[in-house]
Design brief:
Length: 294
Amino acid sequence: MPKPTFETLDYAVEDGVAVITLNRPDKLNAFNTQMMKDLIAVFDETDGDDAVRAVIITGAGRAFCAGADLSAGAATFDYDARGGEDRAARAPEGVQRDGGGLVTLRIFDSLKPVISACNGAAVGVGVTMQLAMDIRLASTEARYGFVFARRGINPEACSSWFLPRLVGVQTALEWCYTGRLFPAQEAHEKGLVRSVHAPDELLPAAKAIAREIADNTAPVSVAITRQLIWRMAGATHPMEAHKADSRGILARGKSADAREGVTSFLEKRPPRYPDRVSQDLPDIWPHWESPKFS
């Protein structure tokens, strides 16, 4: 099967770990419509490939993503003035969909764990797209900025849902009110990123986490776990988690993976999990309805 190619991304899979590299280095990997489409498509690819056990996202050159491509000038955020290029992102109700939000919603639905390796500037959508990722690592060269109020717009990419859950309401509001740039160390202190690394140690550190996942865990169990944690972040009562947990344990408890997990532990050998995300993922969400856009 030929390796997929994308206009704004590099994509490679090695030993179960997919590495997605935002690749517009001459534009500091600025986000445009094509990058939106490529990111959505690449997560379709990682979800559909059972060989992929974990996903890492980083940037080419000296930036992770410097935010929206501003080459349209004053009309950058005026969808009507820009004409037809974004018409495909309109909802049936006629409301223009935010491109960054389409990306983070797709990442939210990912069946594979997603690790951010932020190598440089991450501004606007360059930081908000990372909020939907599971584990965020930063280079000492990384800089972050929720700059929307400084551009006359508001936070996007579902960041008003993700950001307070990660760093608390007070920090989220300060960062968004001021729109200031802040360093990786502050991002670490406030809980936005897991750890800060020297530039040449960033990707190896991300790959070490991905390797730990790929070598030791059942992929179907990881897919369920990812959705349990993210979806329950918005649940109104722990009973919702109990319902989903119970359905999952019922389905997974009789699976070949569960038998292998116990047997390999007792036999003191590495596990060889047979179940595949593409065909063995149970439906444990009969109570869950995805919110509709209106």
